[in-house]
Amino acid sequence: LGTTTNKVTLCQAGCVEVDSETEAVVGQSFKIRCISCKKRSETDAEAFTEWFFKEEGTNEMVKILRYDVYDKLVIYDPRFEDLVEWNGTKIIADLQDVSIFILNVTFEHKGEYMCSVNRTLHYANDFSYNIMVNKTIHLDVVEKANRDMASIVSEIMMYVLIVVLTIWLVAEMIYCYKKIAAATEAAAQENASEYLAITSESKENCTGVQVAE
């Protein structure tokens, strides 16, 4: 009997590069999103990322952390010590989502962030090719969250829909009331006509009886 060996590989879902949100609120958590998709999914690769930060009002871009699947998260800047969690690709060596999570935002976190993804592609015959991708995110820190345009438009549309439905319901009720009233009036007129017809017929019968006598 032959032995069958099943080869199991880790697969990543389809990668889509989505821009990060850029406004954080003091005292709250915030995800800084950075995604760098590999263009050829069939090519083996591995990657690591380094994040840099330039605080508002300064000119120096400082390395704050590094992450790879082997050494995990390493923090270099004390301003982010115990405040940053890894929120990107895990287990797989080819990092595509290299997002981070700031647990307690302060005004010191306002500024310019750069995520640098260093990816090595492995081809046949031990040939490797290195690619570096840098993405910049400007983070603004506010004391109170500002409502975005989408939520405002959604709320306006909700109120408009409520008003339209209310008007439609009132119009439908008026229409039904008029229809019922018209039907009731028609039935009353029909009953009155029948009553008058019966009364007239009774009078004629009575007159005929008197003449015969």
What does this structure look like?
The protein is of the alpha+beta class and 213 residues long. It has two domains: 23-146, Immunoglobulins (Immunoglobulin-like); 147-198. It is 30% helix and 29% strand. The chain contains one helix and nine strands; from the N terminus they run βββββββββα. It has one helix spanning 149-212, and strands at 23-25, 30-32, 44-55, 62-68, 72-75, 84-86, 100-102, 111-122, 128-142. The chain has a six-stranded mixed sheet with strand order 1-9-8-3-4-5, with no helix packed on it. The chain is elongated and about 120 Å long. The termini are far apart. 14% of the residues are buried. The model is unreliable at 1-12 (pLDDT under 50). Its main location: membrane. Belongs to the sodium channel auxiliary subunit SCN1B (TC 8.A.17) family. Keywords: Cell membrane, Cell projection, Disulfide bond, Glycoprotein, Immunoglobulin domain, Ion channel, Ion transport, Membrane, Signal, Sodium, Sodium channel, Sodium transport, Transmembrane, Transmembrane helix, Transport, Voltage-gated channel. It is a single-pass type I membrane protein. This is Sodium channel regulatory subunit beta-1.
